[in-house]
Design brief:
- The protein is of the alpha/beta class and 369 residues long.
- The chain has 13 helices and 12 strands.
- α1 packs parallel to α5, α1 packs parallel to α6 and α4 packs across α5.
């Protein structure tokens, strides 16, 4: 006899009612006449890092695409944390940090009077923007399209998570990507209408723009030299930035934990090779925790966490080689004159449970080190 999971069905009903109720409240409030006068930016998970700093610069010349009449619109950039160690001068006139109960009220008022919202994460602040900015044009600007399957096709999404995810996307009016290829990939993997996806560029693309490339590269090299010091003098610098393993319960699971699972890997040979060839690895993990494995590789690597450098994009052009796996970095760098190494983990639990947009066997990238 098949056992019915009443708890699961109860949760599904609760989630459906909750999302419908939130939308109903938002629709009701939107009927109240009010002047919408703001373009509101919300950084990645409310933090002033990730792609937040480049988000505004990427869109500054595309305001006409955000709203039909940009004149007299005031720009507000909402942040809730992560403003430490960051040069805020370029955005100081538009930043608003939420740090008290009174600030939360002002935040809701900014949403209420928003003509357009620019976000980087569909699920973040969904309730707030759905209630207070129901009729605002909502634009999702990516920081690159990852190869991991992010949408309904994800194998590890149960029915409740799928309901949540599709509800998050219900108020997204536009998705901005950097290429026609990304447009097709995003549409298929997210099951999102392709006519709502525009090739207007992602936040990170401003760094790679030809007219700014050399200047950005010079600034990046100065910054990484300031952070790492003499340890990189006379060496080739290689960035290892793997995608977020969100199935991991252990927040301290890092890049070397993944690397050590590669077929035929030998840590002694690996370290000896890097020393002989004067290569220094710089590790950047998505996870906020730090793996204990790094202690074994301290001689040949440096770990740059969020507390040291909140914005990786500041130094991304400083590296001689960039090694990634299924991250959005792969597609961003594949079309540029940057040496790229691709690590594949076809037997990884992450790949099996999350799934990939493209089959692993068709992915390629020269491992140049």
């Amino acid at each position: 006899m098949m056992k019915i999971n009443f708890k699961m069905y109860t949760n599904k009903i609760y989630i459906l009612i909750m999302f419908k109720l939130v939308s109903l409240i938002g629709l009701t409030l939107s009927i109240i006449p009010h002047r919408r006068k703001y373009i509101v930016f919300i950084g990645h998970h409310g933090r002033f890092n990730g792609n937040s700093k480049y988000l505004y610069s990427a869109l500054s010349d595309k305001m006409n695409a955000l709203i039909s009449a940009p004149n007299n619109m005031k720009i507000i950039f909402i942040v809730k944390s992560g403003m430490e160690n960051i040069d805020k001068n370029s955005l100081k006139n538009i930043l608003f940090k939420v740090s008290s109960k009174r600030d939360w009220l002002q935040y809701f008022l900014y949403l209420w009077f928003a003509k357009a919202l620019v976000i980087t994460t569909p699920g973040y602040d969904w309730k707030s923007r759905r209630v207070f900015a129901f009729k605002a044009k909502t634009i999702l600007v990516s920081n690159g399209i990852p190869l991991k399957s992010p949408g309904i096709l994800s194998k590890n999404f149960d029915s409740i998570k799928s309901i949540k995810y599709t509800s998050f996307w219900s108020d997204i009016d536009q998705l901005w990507v950097s290429s026609q290829f990304e447009r097709y990939m995003a549409s298929s993997s997210l099951e999102y209408p392709i006519e709502k996806i525009f090739i207007n560029g992602a936040a990170r693309q401003t760094i790679f723009a030809r007219e700014n490339f050399n200047n950005n590269k010079s600034q990046a090299k100065e910054k990484i030299k300031h952070i790492l010091g003499d340890v990189i003098t006379g060496k080739r610098i290689v960035l290892v930035a793997l995608t977020h393993r969100d199935y991991m319960k252990d927040a301290n699971f890092g890049a070397f934990d993944s690397i050590e699972k590669l077929y035929g890997y030998n840590s002694t040979d690996f370290i000896e090779y890097l020393v002989q060839n004067k290569i220094h690895l710089v590790i950047r993990d998505h996870a906020l925790g730090k793996s204990k494995k790094y202690e074994k590789y301290e001689k040949i690597s440096s770990y740059i966490g969020h507390e040291i450098l909140p914005e990786l994009n500041d130094i991304i052009l400083a590296f001689d080689v960039i090694i990634t796996d299924y991250s959005g970095l792969y597609l961003d760098l594949l079309k540029l004159d940057i040496q790229l190494g691709l690590l594949r983990f076809p037997t990884d639990k992450f790949v099996k449970e999350r799934g990939l947009i493209l089959p692993d066997k068709v992915l390629s990238g020269p491992l140049v080190i």
